[in-house]
């Protein structure tokens, strides 16, 4: 029976995509199942959310117990829960396509499939300390409840911080199911309040920055 469409190397039929949508489709082969149209969301324009904190925030000693028995605060921009701190963010170098992937208010995956994203951050603190400061990422379910695993954990134990600032930088790759989002957590068990540095990215070299990019 002849192929309804084109063939690959005159051997394997290339089936037409089942549906036509707004996302481009990529032809892939796994060597066993033959060729198929992938569900990749990558298009001509990258989906990148890049933001920085527009003003300084005080991180109190010990923070709050979020999640249970863990001194930390959750930095959020959308739905507010007990112990959350709402950041004033300015989106810089963010692409329009990103808002087709991520909900602009909650950061949730609003596609119809699981996505893989690369997450990078640089949280800068100002003030001396004799304890730990740490930053990490947790996946928040569609029910807005954080899941226990921590990703991209960066910790600074017992390191005095000069007034010039101390950077907690990290990166990781996480998978987000439909409706899931990523939340940043910051803990402060030092002996004094820490200042998370914010400001104008054009004039403040140590401004705190976050970036998420779609990789599939």
Please give a handful of descriptors for the protein shown.
mainly beta, Jelly Rolls, 2% helix, elongated, 2 domains, 216 residues, single chain, 7-stranded antiparallel β-sheet, 6-stranded mixed β-sheet
Structure description:
The protein has 216 residues and is mostly beta strands. The chain folds into 2 domains: 1-40, no CATH class; 48-214, Jelly Rolls, CATH 2.60.120. It contains 1 helix and 17 strands. The chain has one helix at 98-101, and strands spanning 7-8, 12-13, 27-29, 35-37, 48-53, 57-59, 64-65, 71-76, 84-86, 89-91, 115-126, 133-140, 151-156, 166-176, 181-188, 194-196, 209-214. Strands 5, 6, 10, 11, 14, 16 and 17 form a 7-stranded antiparallel β-sheet that branches. Strands 7, 8, 9, 12, 13 and 15 form a 6-stranded mixed β-sheet that branches. Strands 1-2 form a two-stranded antiparallel sheet. Strand 3 (27-29) and strand 4 form a beta hairpin. The two termini are 34 Å apart. The model is unreliable at 6-10 and 64-69 (pLDDT under 50).
Compact summary:
It is built from 1 helix and 17 strands. The chain is mostly beta strands.
Outline the biggest β-sheet: 7 strands, antiparallel
Q: Any idea of the CATH topology of the largest domain? A: Jelly Rolls
Derived from helix and strand composition plus strand pairing, the structural class reads mainly beta
**CATH domain class of the largest domain:** Mainly Beta
Average pLDDT, to the nearest integer?
77
Ends: how far apart?
34 Å
What's the alpha carbon Rg, rounded to whole Å? Answer: 21 Å
What is the CATH architecture annotation of the largest domain?
A: Sandwich
| pLDDT < 50 stretches | 6-10, 64-69
Task: Give the H and E element order.
Answer: EEEEEEEEEEHEEEEEEE
Number of separate domains: 2
